[in-house]
Specification:
The chain has about 500 residues and is an alpha/beta fold. It has two domains: about 300 residues, Aminopeptidase, CATH 3.40.630; about 160 residues, Glucose Oxidase, domain 1 (3-Layer(bba) Sandwich). The protein contains twelve helices and 19 strands. The strands form three sheets. The chain has an eight-stranded mixed beta sheet, sandwiched between helices. Strands 4-3-11-6-7-8-10-5 form an eight-stranded mixed beta sheet, covered by helices on one side. It has a three-stranded antiparallel beta sheet with strand order 9-2-12, with helices on one face. Strand 7, helix 4 and strand 8 form a beta-alpha-beta unit. Helix 2 crosses helix 6 and helix 8 packs across helix 11. Bound molecules: zinc ion (ZN).
């Protein structure tokens, strides 16, 4: 009896293993937990000091990824001599103890206004001129018939007819150029975005890292808090004084890491599936968050050494077993600084964007449910079925992001390519709510590699890779779902 039962079990298991042999041969099924663990222990180690963009350890992380690519025989692309794509950033400092004199009031920088760029300047009772937005393009010229020479220009904040806060902010450096070219002594913009001025001060007020603007304004470029809008009006102001210090800018080396694994299908290999993850985190020390006596380093294990490990394990798996479409692997720098790396890449792609049919980004805040993976935008593209099937293949469940109202989709690197039209969901480790478990580690010094589950990390990598494989081998590229806010731009990108 016993023997018979045993024979049956043996036969049955032989049958099962024959049946699943083909799938089991895929490298993601035999992914090495030790290897995944070694990547994450390196990237999230204390020695890496939180991989802050602009600091040397951020470049060490980039180098680490690049050398993994090299070891795997992955190709460089876009005419780059190496895997590293330089992302021009600038570090800006200064203008701190500056003041403006409005009537009897003295306005202080870092409180009432921020100075974004410009040389030191000292003006007393200097005439002020109002120029609308201070904008110039094909449609309008706010400087037409207005003499601003030797005067301080005051204008509304941002770009006319544009409701995108980021573009309004970045466009504003152009305005300083327009003002200087027209002979103004300084540009003062009246900040009125629906985004607290306190955050503006935090982000732009002191030392900061930003995309290199190429414009280091000659004249002081100032944003003043909206609480002063009344004082800064035509009716109430005809002159202004200021005593401001120079804003010093320094170029900072930072890099995205980009490599290609060519596809096997003679036709489909001209299409690319983009796999991406940011490798930067927020650094170390009390300037960047809450530290304790025993832990001052923001290791960024969950955010985003996990995603970076998934990217590296994908590089290994797709080198071992190629897909029909080509795989474009990108490690992004600068996500925590405002998605600087992915935004730069989207403007300076190394493979034409219209050949990139899909982007599966991996970034996460942490996880509170290791029976799941969470996908921002799971139901927004035609790859929903592939991703769900991939999770199921490893015994877990792919779920949609539990808080779509927080619009996390647009708050990670995936949005940089999504905004160009490429269907681009983000795969994160399983989280079902922003609860205490997530808060315990998210951007905290406690986010150490010792306190994640390495077996869950491995499973997460497997699901990420298998999802990508299913998508890269599909007959037709998955599209945005009908009615999605990026559907139209997607149609424009792909020409249909
Ligand atoms: Zn992140």
């Amino acid at each position: 009896m016993l023997r018979n039962k045993l024979t049956f079990i043996l036969l049955f298991s032989t049958f099962i293993s024959a049946f699943s042999q083909k799938l089991n041969k895929l490298p993601e099924y035999t992914l090495s937990q030790t290897e995944a663990e070694s990547h994450i222990r390196f990237l999230a180690s204390d020695e890496m000091l939180g991989r802050r963009t602009g600091e040397v350890t951020n470049n060490v992380a980039a180098r680490y990824i690049a050398e993994q690519f090299r070891k795997l025989g992955i190709k460089t692309t876009g005419g780059q001599p190496d895997y590293l794509q330089k992302v021009p950033l600038e570090y800006s400092k200064g203008g701190k103890a500056s003041e403006m004199f409005v009537g009897k009031d003295t306005l202080k920088s870092g409180k009432d206004f921020v100075m974004l760029s410009g040389k030191a300047a000292k003006f007393q009772n200097t005439p002020v001129v109002f120029v609308g937005y201070g904008w110039i393009d094909d449609k309008q010229n706010d400087y037409k018939n207005i003499d601003v020479k030797g005067k301080i220009v005051v204008c509304q904040f941002g770009i006319p007819n544009n409701d995108k806060p980021f573009e309004n902010m970045t466009g504003s450096t152009k305005k300083a150029k327009f003002a200087a070219e027209n002979g103004a002594l300084a540009l003062v913009q009246l900040y009125n975005l629906n985004f607290p001025f306190a955050s503006i001060i935090r982000n732009f007020g002191g030392e900061r890292l930003m995309a290199a603007s190429g414009v280091n304004s000659e004249i002081p470029h100032i944003w003043v808090n909206s609480t002063f809008i009344k004082q800064f009006s035509k009716e109430n102001m005809n002159s202004l004084g200021m005593n401001v210090g120079e804003v010093v800018k320094k170029q900072v080396p930072a890099y995205n890491v980009v490599g290609v694994i060519e596809g096997t299908d003679s036709k489909l290999k001209n299409e690319y599936l983009v796999l991406s993850a940011h490798f930067d985190h927020i650094g170390a020390g009390k300037n960047y968050g809450k530290v304790t006596d025993s832990d001052t380093i923001f290791n960024g294990t969950r955010d985003n050494a996990m995603g970076t490990t998934a990217l590296l394990m994908a590089a290994r798996s797709f080198s071992a077993q190629k897909t029909k479409r080509s795989i474009l692997l990108i490690g992004y720098t600068g996500e925590e600084m405002g998605m600087l790396g992915s935004k730069y890449y989207a403007e300076n792609p190394l493979v034409p964007l219209k050949q990139c049919i899909f982007n599966l980004n991996s970034d996460g805040a942490g996880y509170n449910d290791s029976t799941k993976v969470t996908i921002n935008g799971l139901d927004r593209t035609g790859a929903e079925g592939d991703i769900k099937a991939a999770a199921k293949a490893f015994g877990i469940e792919a779920i949609n992001d539990p808080a779509p109202e927080q619009n996390l989709f647009d708050r990670s690197d995936n949005v940089s390519l999504a905004a160009k039209g490429i269907p681009a969901p983000n795969m994160a480790p399983g989280f079902t709510a922003f609860d205490a478990e997530i808060g315990k580690y998210y951007h905290q010094a406690a986010d150490n590699p010792e306190n994640i589950s390495m077996s869950y990390l491995t499973k997460f990598c497997k699901v990420y890779i298998h999802s990508a494989r299913l998508i890269a081998n599909r007959a037709n590229a998955p599209k945005w779902k009908v009615g999605d806010k990026y559907e139209k731009i997607g149609q424009e990108l792909y020409g249909k």
